[in-house]
Amino acid sequence: MHPAIENLKARGFFQQCTDAEKLSSLMNEGPVTFYVGCDPTGASLHIGHMVPFFAYRHLREAGQKGLALIGGGTARIGDPSGKSEMRKMLSYDELDSNAASIAAQLDRFIGFDGNAARAVNNKDWLANLNYIDFLRDIGSHFSVNRMLSFEAYKMRMETGLSFIEFNYQLLQSYDFLELYRRHGCRLQIGGDDQWGNIVAGVELIRRIEGVEVFGMTFPLITTADGKKMGKTEKGALFLDPALTSPYDFFQYWRNVQDADIRRFLLMFTFLPIGECEALTAPDKNPNEAKERLAWEVTALIHGKQEADKALAGAKAAFGAASGGDKSAMPQASLSRAAFEKGYNVVDLFCDAGFFSTKSDSRRLVEQGGAFVSGPDGELAAVTGVATLIGVDRLNAEGELVLRAGKKKYCLVKTANSR
Q1: What CATH number has the domain spanning 3-218?
Q2: Is the predicted pLDDT of residue 97 greater than 90, yes or no?
């Protein structure tokens, strides 16, 4: 088996392949051009989108050539795969703006050089497609019965599948055909929920061009307790620092379960396999491996400087209550007048950015997970949802520290609103 495929298997990426042996033989003949696509349905990717792009980098570093397809055309319809209902339709201007943002995020992560790695947009060949010609030339190769046998469509048939979504598989298959014709692309990679769409593209190229191309999928990642990977109390773990701060991004990885450390080190870092194994050896402290994982992934997404700041902030948070350096901690600026009146603790934790809803903040307080420092810096639990936090809790600098649960901290600085 070609080393590029063996490496993906060893790091936990490999799920299915249309013909791994033949793909390996093709790679032995020379570089294979492959692609992975994502639709710009939002302004930012989240970490769940990134699994195929980590694999992209491994393949590129093994000598293959990668295309990152931004679905500016397919996003006008929306992929029904993995969705229980139809996606919200966005304006073409919104989609173009999202496509530009996502292309920039991928460029920072991948480093497009126009040769071994480049970005393409299927809007270029889908936006002005003649529908009648498309049905004659492409649609005639698809069996409705075959399409309905794929899991993505079977699941949606129970809740309602629109005709516009039913066309999505044809368009994604056509993307593969266009990329084969334009760039000699012979491999499509993606999450395992894309298997049906990928296989359809492989079959379309075989029928029209008489050429064998390949598809490979990666597992959909869940945590050790079965939860969807990359989900936080505030929602998805976004790459955009305005949506998920580098500190919160770092903390997600720092707080993963012990059972997930080895798997995440292999998939979400580029550390050698041997080093990943050494970090997670039975005699090693798992917290050291978690800290390394958090730093590596944050550096890949946000840069080394932000990773260093997040690491410093995490260390500062744990030392803050005993007078340690608080400058690197996450911070919130709130009105001193609110403390003079008495700041309700539920509102305080919401306004400091721990939660987006008061119900989540209330639940934290009721469960004994809310801690507020006093003027001496010592943290004390607050269990009453009606508790008011006054100026007597502030230190000489007009600050206090909040802690949610065991590991999330925030330094609150007060500013007079008058």
Answers
A1: 3.40.50.620
A2: yes
